[in-house]
Amino acid sequence: MSKPDTPFPKHWLYYIAIKVGLLAGAIALVLKLYGFW
């Protein structure tokens, strides 16, 4: 698995984890606002 070009290559795994976390948070917020959860 090659390391993608991120602002901080040494911490690319954390960068991906943060992106996934933010995406999950945004989805959860939308579901809560629309009354699905």
Explain what the structure shows:
The protein has 37 residues and is mainly α. Helices cover 59% and strands 0% of the residues. It contains one helix and no strands. It has one helix spanning 12-33. The model has no long low-confidence stretch (mean pLDDT 81). Keywords: Membrane, Transmembrane, Transmembrane helix.
Number of helices: 1
Largest sheet report:
none
Please, what is the average pLDDT?
A: 81
Shape type:
rod-shaped
Stretches where pLDDT falls below 50 for ≥5 residues?
none
Number of strands: 0
Helix proportion: 55-70%
Structural class of the secondary structure composition? Answer: mainly alpha
Our Rg estimate from Cα atoms comes to 14 Å
Describe the protein's topology.
Blueprint: H1 12-33
Concise summary:
The chain is 59% helix and 0% strand. The protein contains one helix and no strands.
Defining traits:
transmembrane helix
